[in-house]
């Protein structure tokens, strides 16, 4: 069953999984600060945050968030 995965050793697979897990933690970690502080805002995307929402234009996105979340949002 796992014979097609045997071209890499067990140690290599362990290190690869550990690396991917740490990469995910690193990608999510910065986006939890506002939630811990109780600041509401749009949910960020892994590694990109809210940058993808700015394709509508920074002013439009900021106005939408201001209307939805009030004066303070993050």
From TrEMBL:
GO molecular function: heme binding; iron ion binding; oxidoreductase activity, acting on paired donors, with incorporation or reduction of molecular oxygen; steroid hydroxylase activity
Residue ranges of the TM segments: 12-29
Keywords: Heme, Iron, Membrane, Metal-binding, Monooxygenase, Oxidoreductase, Transmembrane, Transmembrane helix
Gene3D superfamilies tied to this protein: Cytochrome P450
Recorded family membership: Belongs to the cytochrome P450 family.
Protein name (database record): Cytochrome P450
Native source organism of the sequence: Alosa alosa
